[in-house]
Every structure is written in C-alpha cells, then in structure tokens.
Amino acid sequence: MERIMDLIFGCASIRAVGAEPAKLLTKLAEEKIEFWDTVPVDECTVTFRVGRKNAERVAALSSRCCCEMETIRKRGLPEDFQKLKRRRVLLVLPAVLFALLLWSSFYVWRIEITGNETVPATEILNALEESGVTIGSFWPNFTSDNIRSEVLVKIPKLKWLSVSVSGSCAHVVVREGTKEAMPVDEKKAVKLVATMPGYIEEMQVLCGCAKFQKGQAALTGETLVDGIVPDINGGTRVVHAEGGVIAETFEELTAEMPLTLQKKTPAGHERTRFALLFGEKRINFYAGSRIFDANCDTIIKVHKLGIEGLFELPVSIVTETEQRYVLTETQAPEDAAKARLQKALEAELSRRVGKTGKIESCETTFAVVNGYEVATLRAQCRQNIAKEVPMTDEEVATAQRAQTPKEENKTE
Fold it and tell me: What is the maximum span of the chain, computed from C-alpha positions, in angstroms?
C-alpha cells in the first residue's frame, strides 16, 4: 500500500553526507517530517526517502545540520507528468487512443446469431449484410424495424428477428416458424407395416382394416393395418390407414472396444507462433507455412482486443502452440471399457425405443474376444412398431380382388 501511495503522490530518494547524519534524521523527526527506507551507507552517509513536497524542507534542514544533501531519484505520477509536459506528443497520444477506441465502439466487429435450428447461419448473415448489418457497419444507423422486415422477407422460414448491439457485438436472435402439419389425404392408399418383429399387445386402429389381433406375432415388413377396407355393399374403398400397434419386442445390441489403446506422450519442447488478425487480413510473425509436422497437437487461441461488454476492436492476437508427441500402447482398464460400452448401448436402446416406448427389462453381458471387450445388451421392450407406407397400384389392385371373390363367383 505504501508503494502505491508513493507512486500516486510522489517521493524523493535522498543521500545525506556529513559528520553526523543522524542529527539530520533527529531534526526531521522533531519537525514531524515523515521519512522511511533509512539505510546507513557508512559512518558519514545515510540514504532515506521523503515525500516529494518535503524535499525542499529537507534541503534547508540538511544545511543547518552540516550535511550535504543529494536527490538521487524522484518518482511518482507528479514527476511523470512533468516529464510528459516536455514531450507533448506522449501527452496527447493517450487522448488520441482513447478517442479512437471510443469511435471504434460505434462499429460492429462481431455478429452472434442464436435461435436458428434449420436455417443456416450463413444464410442469415447474407440477408443481414444486404440489410446493412455487417462487419464494420456503423450501428447507430441501424433501424430495427427495417432490418427485421427486410430479413424476414428474404428468409420466409424465420418468423421473428431482433438485433441488439453491445460492446461492438451485434446480437441477432431469431425464431423459426413451426412446421405446419401436412393434411392427410384420406383417399390415398396407405398401410401400416411392422418395423420390427414383436408380439402384439394392443391394436389402436383409427382408420383401415386390421390384419392382426392381440397376442399374435408379427414379422418385420408384414402389413398390420391395410389401406383397403371392405364396404357394406361387398366392394372395397381406399383409405389412409392411421393408428398404432403396441407390441412386445426384443432388442439385441452389440458393441466392442479395443483393450489396447494408443496414448499420446509429449516429446520435445513446445513451439509457439504468433499472428495478428486485422479484420480478415492475417499477419504472421513467423517464417514458413502454417502446415505443422505430423504427430503433433496444435492449440490455437484467438484473443480479441477490447473490453468485454464495452467495446471490441477488429484486431485479434492469435497464438498457435505446437506440442509434439509419440504414440505408446497402453492397456485400457477393463472396468472403464465395460462402463463406456454399457453407456453407449443404453443410449442406442433409448433412441430406438423412443419417447413413447418403454424398456421392460435389460441385461448386458461382457466377453473379451481377440483383445476386444465385447458387450451384448438384450432388452425386452414395449413400443409402437407400426409405420405408414404408401401402397403401390399393384398392391391396391391385388387387395381389391382379394376382397371381392364372392361377387366374381356370382357373375360367372
């Protein structure tokens, strides 16, 4: 804390030479002049520090104490300011830099887009550029209503957009429109087929002709609900089959993982390269290309110049650190391999069953085969196995003939 105060208010390092320099220190104490960092050099010399404003009083007292005083050094902000007054360029330079930083904060140097899922960010950036929002644009000229209207016209998939600027960064938040449900063509022949084998537990037929009953077993690809329905007149009509078929299914998944892994071991010294980015222009402070040697990891860090939340400059410092390594074979812990395989198989099983399905029971077995940890998961599930599939013209004609055999016999 004392050093900080010395720098703020200024201090002077004094060397006093005389027959009895201790008398000078005693006189300073009597006059209540604060001094510190006293160092006796020899019997006739002593050095100490005093405040900048007390240097002249010490000079007057030293002559009265038969001592010669010499100011070794002056330091602190007041002294630095006096030096800057003689160098007007250095005095004006901070003000010029501050003005440039302030002016730079009125320009956009980074654009962040959030909220987009299906619309690519590049498409949004192109639409924003055509609307006047781009890197280096003067953001006080932005008009949110005009930008929103122009971008929404160019990208109909977006239903809402907002642009806000903070710290030379334009934050663009978008909302995409919800997908409208496609209307069901009730006259189109669509059937429900089994996506996997299972024992049927429940038939939820909203439209169509059920081909299976509860307790029966269905194989993959078999028609569960037909799109050809017989009518009361003995004929048939084409419908869009709808519904679901809940069945008891059995899943068996297998995954494997090598027990011998290759581990990276650092070899040699790290090498760091530096570069500057001015907008899209790059200045490298090294010779050669950016292609690194084989068997090395490269860590690239980009440091933006500016104050977060206040302003950001279009200048970045890039550091590229290259660390060479050699590959050594290590034995992976069997327990860790089992846990990793178990987690992967359970995630895949949950994906296959879906949100509407249910896992009734699950069991995983492990075995080591040719240096690989092999995991086999067997599960009993309850899920919907029905899938809509359009019927071909040939299938429709065949189904209609099969539904009207009696009428054809009567005609004959």
Answer: 148
